[in-house]
């Protein structure tokens, strides 16, 4: 009996050890797409401090002019939109080290000048906004390998110069910010096929040169950073139809040339990377109305030409890539106020022309 119990205990320990090696550690890694060096920088995130440490083997080769990076909800796969090679690089993520390994068949063809890539919350579909072809490429994701297969009917028509694509937390709706037509295309997503169908009333009016769109984690609000009008458009999302209605008081003033916007996991705070004023605007979000209110001490300084902002999966840190100074500014978030404080050691070195940043996600 004692030998049997000992054997079961050893088997249990081995199983736990194997599980710990194969299960992604959520929020452990950050990835930055570097547009001028044609690669992706990978970092391990210190869970206590938020400091970034380069992953061994980083940077990882991408296509030509990589401008957007996304990770699937399981933390197993990463995807990079390569603007000048008109394709998407796909990688598996080593759950222990964060190392990126190209997926068989990668890169996968996209439209002209793919500018943004996103994975839906189910991990079944990926979407790419193609700036020069005015449409959105849709893909089925192979759950075992991460490989991409075009969705029937793809690409789907968008507005002029679609620069950003996002999927809401329910996986029911997708939104695309169209820079040259100053509006937002909205779509319903077929849960079985991934096909995009325009929402009645779409496209929805935005500001001048909308460059980034985000949906808050509650799925109630959408926000768009308007680069040429230096403000943020806010919308209420109709939970049934996905239609967008302007929030009272919208648009909300940001810095100069706001290029990217992100919302924290609690839906309490929003952060905007202002390319022209080299800083980050911080706002509180009214949980009922969606109204944005500037946080005391905002904006905070970033590096030169900040182009992308992301909130860490745990909601403790904010990362901003600075295209002009080739680095990543990192901040801690005050959980009560949303105020940002630079992390010791920040900014952290990237490669040439960092354009987009993401972190591995939290569990769903």
Describe the structure.
- The chain has 364 residues and is mostly beta strands.
- It is globular and about 50 Å long.
- It has one domain: YVTN repeat-like/Quinoprotein amine dehydrogenase (Methylamine Dehydrogenase, Chain H, 7 Propeller), CATH 2.130.10.
- The strands form 7 sheets. Strands 1, 2, 3, 4 and 35 form a 5-stranded antiparallel β-sheet that branches. Strands 5, 6, 7, 8 and 9 form a 5-stranded antiparallel β-sheet that branches.
- The chain contains 1 helix and 35 strands.
- Mean pLDDT is 93; it is low at 1-25.
In brief, what are we looking at here?
The chain is mainly β.
Low-pLDDT stretches are 1-25
Determine Rg (CA atoms, Å).
20 Å
CATH level 3 topology? Methylamine Dehydrogenase, Chain H
What is the top-level CATH class? Mainly Beta
CATH architecture: 7 Propeller
Helix content: under 10%
Largest sheet: 5 strands, antiparallel
User: What sort of overall outline do the alpha carbons produce when their principal axes are compared?
Assistant: globular
Count of helices? 1
> How many structural units, i.e. domains?
1
Looking at CATH, the homologous superfamily is YVTN repeat-like/Quinoprotein amine dehydrogenase
Query: How many strands appear in the DSSP assignment?
Result: 35
What is the structural class? mainly beta
Mean pLDDT score, rounded? 93
Distance, first to last CA:
41 Å
User: Strand portion, in percent?
Assistant: over 45%
């Amino acid at each position: 009996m004692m030998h049997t119990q000992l054997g079961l205990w050893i088997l249990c320990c081995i199983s736990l050890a194997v599980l710990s090696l194969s299960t992604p550690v959520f929020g452990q890694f950050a990835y930055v797409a570097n547009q001028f060096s044609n690669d992706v920088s990978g970092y391990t995130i210190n869970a206590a401090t938020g400091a970034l440490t380069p992953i061994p083997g980083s940077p990882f080769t991408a296509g030509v002019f990589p401008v957007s990076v996304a990770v699937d909800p399981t933390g197993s796969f990463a995807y990079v939109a390569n603007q000048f090679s008109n394709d998407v690089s796909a990688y598996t993520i080593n759950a222990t080290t964060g190392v990126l390994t190209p997926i068989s068949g990668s890169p996968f063809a996209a439209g002209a000048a793919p500018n943004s890539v996103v994975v839906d919350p189910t991990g079944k579909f990926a979407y790419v906004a193609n700036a020069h072809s005015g449409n959105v490429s849709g893909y089925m994701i192979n759950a075992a390998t991460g490989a991409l297969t075009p969705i029937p009917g793809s690409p789907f028509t968008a507005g002029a110069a679609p620069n950003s694509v996002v999927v809401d937390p329910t996986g029911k709706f997708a939104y695309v910010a169209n820079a040259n037509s100053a509006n937002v295309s909205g779509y319903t997503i077929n849960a079985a096929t991934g096909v995009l169908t325009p929402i009645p009333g779409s496209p929805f009016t935005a500001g001048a040169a909308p460059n980034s769109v985000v949906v808050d984690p509650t799925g109630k609000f959408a926000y768009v950073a308007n680069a040429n009008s230096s403000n943020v458009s806010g919308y209420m999302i109709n939970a049934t139809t996905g239609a967008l209605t302007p929030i009272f008081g919208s648009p909300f003033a940001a810095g100069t040339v706001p290029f990217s916007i992100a919302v924290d996991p609690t839906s309490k705070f929003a952060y905007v990377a202002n390319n022209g004023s080299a800083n980050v605007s911080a706002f509180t979000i009214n949980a009922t109305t969606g109204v944005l209110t500037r946080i005391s001490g905002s904006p905070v300084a970033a590096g030169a030409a900040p182009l992308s902002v992301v909130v860490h999966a745990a909601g403790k840190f904010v990362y901003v890539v600075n295209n002009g100074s080739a680095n990543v500014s990192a901040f801690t978030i005050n959980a009560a106020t949303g105020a940002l404080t630079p992390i010791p050691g920040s900014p952290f070195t990237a490669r040439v022309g960092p354009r987009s940043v993401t972190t591995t996600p939290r569990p769903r």
